[in-house]
Amino acid sequence: MMKLLPVLLALVVSVGLNAVAKQHRKLYFGTATNNEEFTNDTAYLNVIKDSRMFGQLTAANSMKWENTEPSPGQFTFADADQFVRFAQRNGQILRGHNCVWHQQLPDWVLDGTFTESEILAAVERHCGTLLEYSINDALNASEDSWDVVNEVINDDGTFRQDVFFNTSGTKYIAAAFRAARAADPHAKLYANDFNIEGPGPKVTAYHNLIKTLKKEGVPIDGIGIQAHLIVGQLPSNITENLESFTKLGVEVALTELDIRMTLPSTPQLLAQQKKDYETVISACNAVKGCVGVTVWDFTDKYSWVPGTFTGEGDACPWDDNLQKKPAFFGIIDGFNA
Ligand code: G3I
């Protein structure tokens, strides 16, 4: 009965995921979003604007390099402003996403020819300006986090070869973190990546990167574990894996959680998905240094999954019609486990 109580309560009253996360000493439960979604869709707006449900927002696209610095040194924050103002109005903290990533780059970066010092200067200007922007504009800037570098390591543990690495080796990583810290002394600065939910060569490479950066005095505060997962295929030892990071003196957060399935969905798949959400949330809940969880949009209506993985989807805790799925209650169970 005791175990059933939270679920029964959640069914009767509208329980907020952020409220539950906070009861369990997490800083937030949040979601990614796009401006078009909360501006054009009233049913969506009514769920996302409630800070008892979502205490933190991540811009899925509007702060990325192609959107914020489309030409060298020309910064445009119209979309970011709309997003930041929305979060401010709702009393929600922000995750900045992201400073440096190999995707969604403007052509001048992607196809540009740079010397080492030119690419480092471009990275410093971009990260510095983004962090300066967010410290000036975000209501709760001191609680905010930033994905300073995104997806810099391959699954086999080697560094990703992109315009930044090919021009500067790993120097751009330190340069990005230092510029971010110089611009905003308070934001928590993260490296963010996928496929690091369980042990393996990629996790080992991140351990080594953290040790090296810390030895060099580079200001890294956290590792964002994206957690784009597959129903029935969770890595084992998620809890121990989170602890392996926190032991190195960084915090962790689940930054892009979703758990996709092969369509069509069935009651069995939805039940397994509920269990999987519970497992992941309870792992974060069990680790003191796991500070919060963000889902990569909360409804299947706007999930990135079907557009990327043909035949897969239904990865989110709310369905296409903005109705809560069993996964929603799996999240509550995970916090209460
Ligand atoms: O803005 C254009 C629009 O003008 C055009 O009409 C439309 C036609 O397709 O495309 C729009 O751009 C799309 C953009 O999202 C904004 O909706 C791009 O095609 C599409 O590729 C882009 O996808 C984003 C993806 O990153 C790019 O890789 C997803 O929305 C976004 O959720 C996703 O987020 C990433 C994280 O940043 C990093 N981790 C993985 C995660 C999922 O891929």
From TrEMBL:
Keywords: Carbohydrate metabolism, Glycosidase, Hydrolase, Polysaccharide degradation, Secreted, Signal, Xylan degradation. Pfam families: Glyco_hydro_10. It is found in: Secreted. It is an enzyme of class 3 (hydrolase). Gene3D superfamilies: Glycosidases. It catalyses: Endohydrolysis of (1->4)-beta-D-xylosidic linkages in xylans. Its EC number is 3.2.1.8. Pathway: Glycan degradation; xylan degradation. The keyword Lyase does not apply. Its main location: secreted. Residues 39-334 form the GH10 domain. One of its GO terms (molecular function) is endo-1,4-beta-xylanase activity. GO terms for biological process: xylan catabolic process. Residues 1-19 form the signal peptide. One of its GO terms (cellular component) is extracellular region. Coiled coil: none annotated. Belongs to the glycosyl hydrolase 10 (cellulase F) family. This is Beta-xylanase. It comes from Cerrena zonata.
